[in-house]
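Field reference: "sequence" (input) and "structure" (output). Example, N-(5'-phosphoribosyl)anthranilate isomerase:
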Amino acid sequence: MLGFVFFPKSPRHISVEQATALVAQARDLSQTVQIVALTVNLSDTDLEAICGSIAPNWLQLHGKEAPDRVVEVRREFATPVMKAIGIANAEDAEDALRYATVAERLLLDAKPTAGALPGGNGVMFDHRLIAGHDFGVPYLLSGGLNADNVAEAVALTRPDGVDVSSGVESAPGVKDVARIHAFVRAAREALDSAAQ
Ligand SMILES: O=C(O)c1ccccc1NCC(=O)[C@H](O)[C@H](O)COP(=O)(O)O
C-alpha cells in the first residue's frame, strides 16, 4: 500500500495533480500496488476530486469522521474505507469498536496532542491498551514504528498489518529508500512469525 496525504498543513501534503502523476507511475511499475488516499474530514466535493483523479483502492479517513459519515463515504465513492482511530486510553480502544461494522479496516494510531498534526507525528501509543483485543475487523498498527521497534510491537499486538511514515524518513516529509527497505524487511518478518 502506498499512502498519499491530502492535508495542506502536513509536510507530506500532495496536490491532486502531483498525486495523479505519481499514482500512474506506481501502477505502471506494479500490478499489485494499492493506492491509499489519506484525508481528514473532507467534504464530498474534495473527495470527488481525489477519487475522480486517482481512483484510490482505499480511502483512509484520518479525522473525526463519525461512523455515519464512514457509511456515507463508502456508499458515495464505492471505495473501501480504512478508519484511523487515535488511541490514548482504554476508552479509545473501546470506541474503535463503533467502526468495526462500518469500515473495512481500522488503523490504530497514537492520539495527537493539541496542536499536533492528526497523524504522522512519529509517536507510539501504549500497545498494552490494544493487546489481545478483537476489533471484529482487520486492523493496521501505526504510530512511531520503525525498523528497530516493529518486531516487538507486532509480537505484542498481532495486527493484520503495519503502517509507517516518520520512521522511514530522513526529515519530515522526506522518505528515505534505505529506511523503507529496512522497515519492510523487519515488518514482513515480524508479521510472518506472528502469523505462525
Ligand atoms: O502523515 C501525515 O502528515 C498526516 C497528516 C494528517 C493526517 C494523517 C497523517 N498521517 C497518517 C498516517 O497514516 C501516518 O502514517 C501515521 O500517523 C503514522 O505516522 P508515524 O507515527 O509518523 O509513523
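The first strand starts at residue 2 and ends at 6.
The mean pLDDT is 97.
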